[in-house]
Amino acid sequence: MSDQVGAPTSERIRFDDVHLGFGRGRQRLEVLDGVGFTVGAGEFVSVLGPSGCGKSTLLNLAAGFLRPDAGAVAVDGEEVRGLDARRGVVFQQYAIFPWLTVEKNIAFGLTLRANRRPTAEVREVVARYVRLMGLEGFEKALPKTLSGGMRQRVALARAYATDPDVMLLDEPFAALDAQTREYMQELLHDTSRQDRRAAMLITHSVEEAIFLSRRIVVLTNRPTRVHEVVDVDVAWPRTPQSRHTPEFVELRQHLEEVMRSMTLRPGREPREKEHR
Q1: Global confidence as pTM
Q2: 19 neighbors 72 (Cβ within 8 angstroms)
């Protein structure tokens, strides 16, 4: 039975007319120029755009690593003013502790003083995400003995295990080979289906964005605005065969054309095209 597809019931993440630049005077670089969009409850949204347009900057704003020059970023109706454990973040780099085993890496956030839980509950949560991420048999392994894909599985498990309100994913599979990347996309899709929390993914990959998302926010070149927001009308849940459906192929061709237009004419708005 397919999951029900519908509009999100409430906003979890909101970017409201966000402006941000770096430097001063002649050296100032305007990056974000009035960016606005939302991520709804239980919704998976990808942010796609040309290199250097500020995709990761948006994620850093939502995570609380940066503050906008103007406009606002809010999570659950509260303006983001700094770091918060309610926002889970997974980076492109393997941000796990090399001296901790797989299970201890996953348990790390659960054992912090501010988020401490009973030992039995920690074990139960760790076991659940070991199982979800296909890490059975590697609980005692150190990261140096794992492949890149397995290390990112540990990073995802650790982020999800802390039960954040929203997930922020900054190109988590960019460094992986194509086959491992597809496997990780399918794993993340299955996990997000079961987990049902709001997630925002930063990616350069059109195919990855389509496969994982309910909606895709397409950004322009700098100074960056939202070019279009696309509903992904591909049957849910997604499977490996979804990548070959007419709807998937049509949307991929549309987005690749938009991205190619931006690459060929940097700094200029691509030709608007309605996508149905």
Answers
A1: 0.87
A2: no
